[in-house]
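Quick one, T. Sequence first:
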Amino acid sequence: MRTDKQVKFRVPSEMADWLRDQAKRNSASLNSEVVRCIRERMDRMVGPDRGEGMDGNGECLRGAPRRQSSVNTDGDQQ
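Structure tokens:
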């Protein structure tokens, strides 16, 4: 049973087109591309080593949970 949360949201059409193009370029699913984009933003805010800005339980101090993803930065499944 999957424990990942599903989120439904709207984006401007030009952003959706860009995301689809990026997913195609990276041979990834649209979902994987969205996760990669968000993870890159989180890494810029928190730090790629996932050590900065985190409490002892592996949670971001800003409230966003951090965990190892099953998607690497290239959008491929690991």
